[in-house]
UniProtKB/TrEMBL annotation:
This is Sulfotransferase. Keywords: Transferase. It holds the Pfam family Sulfotransfer_1. Belongs to the sulfotransferase 1 family. InterPro entries: Gal/GlcNAc/GalNAc_ST (IPR051135), P-loop_NTPase (IPR027417), Sulfotransferase_dom (IPR000863).
Amino acid sequence: MMEPAWHVWGKMGHINTDILHMAIRDMIRSVFHCDMSVFDAYMSPKKNKSNLFQWETSRALCSPPACYYFSRNDIIPQLSCKVFCAKYPFETIQKACKKTYNHIVIKEVRFFDLKVLYPLLQDPSLNLKILHLVRDPRAVYQSRMKVSSMLSHDTNIILRGTKGNKSDFSFRAMEKVCKSQAQIFETAMFGIPSKLHKRYMLLRYEDIVQDPLGKAKQVYEFAKLPFTPKLKDWIHNMTRGKGRGQTFVISSRDALNTSRAWRTVLPFESIHKVQSICSEAMALFGYKILRNAKQQKDLSVDSMLPMLKGQV
């Protein structure tokens, strides 16, 4: 499931992130238990499966019993699923979850504190594992700027309770994102009981780009899931496309060029600002500071350091 907390932020956007964390944790817990009634608090009673945020990115929601147009064995294009599977009842989400699958995966970006998830990590009925994906803050900033109008609601929530000028919103939001990412990693390494360390893995986006199959294999081993030949082919094809893809659409693209697009698109002034406000996170995750525009444009100058302890 893709970012179910989008619905919480959409409904309760007048509240700051610290309080929203509690509602999001309750939602996540319910989803992991296949109880989709939790969405009743955030969505209209008259809802179809298509009212769930980015439901079409889930192969489980594009195949039986959630949709009978495709086979369970198909790897289904996101846009095709959206065309043929949108009108199924919302109840099919819970039906598919309860009766069909042994593992549930949630992708979420709206947690700013790992301690919020302690109760879920300690819940013996869940066997929760956390894969923490980070990305070069300069690339994150460039990505956010591309869709800044679409993220304005989220940005307002992130900055609620903070002081500053609206003209500086984008950098202030990045500063909070970077600080939270660093704190999550530090908490995972030094703040949680040692018995839970094996439940957490940090992974850099750029390392995936360099070795998609190798990193995917390690992720599947971490999750104790089979890494099938069909999945390997899909990953190979998705990361070696010719374009850079569409925003919010999972499609084949040139992963390497996508990962370093910020180096050719952003003005160095913006890069310098992001490096300044995200210096702690960049040092922690092994992202190198670029000193000038010449280094920025020269793609032979590496922007990363070797992997850190705790990374794959």
